[in-house]
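Training component of the fellowship. As part of building independent skills, the fellow (R.M.) carried out the full modelling exercise for a liganded target. The chosen ligand was NAP. The inputs are recorded below so that the supervisory panel can assess the work.
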Amino acid sequence: MSTREFDVLIVGGGLGGMYAVHRLRGMGLKVRAFEAGSGVGGTWFWNRYPGARCDLESLEYSYSFSDDLQQEWRWPERYGTQGEILRYIDHVAERFDLLRDIQLNTRIKAALFDELSNRWTLTTEEGEQFSAPFCIMAAGNLSTPRVPEFKGLASFKGKWYHTGLWPHEGVDFSGQRVAVIGTGSSGLQMIPHIAKQAQHLHVFQRTANFSLPAKNAPLEPEKERQHKAEYAQRRRAAYDTPFGISGHPPPTQSALEVTAEERQRVYEAKWQAGGSISFLYAYNDLLVNKEANDTASEFVRQKIRGIVKDPEVAEILAPKDHPIGTKRLCLDSNYYEVYNQPNVTLVNARRSPIVEITPEGLRTDEAAYTFDAIAFATGFDAMTGALAEIDVRTTAGANLKEKWNAGPRTYLGLMVAGFPNLFVVTGPGSPGVKSQMILAVEQHTDFIADCLTHMRSRRLQRIEAEPAAEDAWVQHVNAVADSTLYPLANSWYVGANIPGKPRVFMPYVGGVHTYRRRCDEVVANGYEGFRLRA
Ligand code: NAP
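Fellow's submitted model of the complex:
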């Protein structure tokens, strides 16, 4: 098969890959993106489980690169459902004619850099080959669904599903005996919906998670009008905030500076208003001081005890093993309330772990259960899973899987030393997953696009991260994480959900504002930490 040649190859047709196509094509570059799905949208294409919805507000969680787009698009609700977000994504693809440069139904299996020609060659599962001087990995951070290796899964006579690979036609659980395994964001969103249909639902919870009410509602026309009138300023302001979201003034007070009554009043107001960022912004030390965090954690535990009528069930649901916010803080609609329904049973899978899946259902070390269907909400091989599925090498002998064996290493989350001309969008070491993701992919892609313009104007062919710059960045990412409470949780941020995965804190939690400033300094200092060559 002949190899087709491009200027830039992009792996992924989600929000990151789509923007990369648009941005780089605008520079006159010949690009091709590859997407495994039969449609664009990444996360929003695959995660079609009932109740799937974004936990950031629609007016923020959207592209900023086109003012016409952001002014014209109408979001019906405060938070977009999976269906609404996918409609938006399909609209963007059509409006900017992106599909002509995105090859769907195509999974990349290998990426090889030739040190002599300075070109990447990508090979698809079907054996097609494409080559270009530059390659951008925009394959997603939560795009490799993971079903735990339970003994006996193949013997199950009912149907099973994973939230991240949900059937497009939907699933009707009416009258069925259903198990949901996993209580992260996906499980929490899905459980109230399945509970409405199922004859009986058993939820297997290993670790209790904190969740706050989303308080979703139709988007108020006045709020929309005002937000759109200030869109440009708001988008700019978002870059100066830790999470990349405008409209939440950074807190100035410690939780320990105020009286217990004052804290209660503030937490209650945030609880009633809904939203996770606003809650974590109640005080300036909730993510760095355990004593301060305890006040917020206890507030939510008390809420759970107030909602769930059975005190034993409430205690199992009240998280006690990690500070609030150190795992992704969930947003829900009527999650805790569901445990007051007679057709819902919570199983403490920490006390009695799942031993095996049986032909009829599953067995814990205490009891056997019969199910018609099992829904796995067991998460993803986060942040490194998608790249681990591609055999990324160079002819100089570098191998990404080997290099990341003890945990991912990057410079700014953008490049990996030893892999020239290979960029990563929102990779490990970037604040991507800890921020408004669409802002993050735009910022990363703009950095890459500006870098390519810089190289073109100087007739440079090759860029790579200097090993010393990478070492320093990895150290910095770890030092920042260690100055917070984040490492206290067994989260996917440290790969804890994947047995055998090295425990390394992967996202940069210094905030979007700090990261963006660092990227700007790097550029101002002539791409400091990168080696550029003709
Ligand atoms: P997750 O947060 O990793 O949760 C996976 C769940 O499965 C955890 O409760 C985990 O328990 C459980 N689990 C894994 N293996 C198990 C086993 N062998 N036995 C019993 N339980 C097991 O995954 P997720 O809910 O799919 O969410 C992943 C991320 O996607 C979120 O943190 C968020 O960033 C994103 N997301 C966002 C939204 C949104 O915007 N609304 C919605 C969904 C997802 P342990 O905690 O004990 O490991």
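The panel noted the following from the submitted structure. The chain has a mean pLDDT of 97. Residues 154-222+246-376 form one domain.
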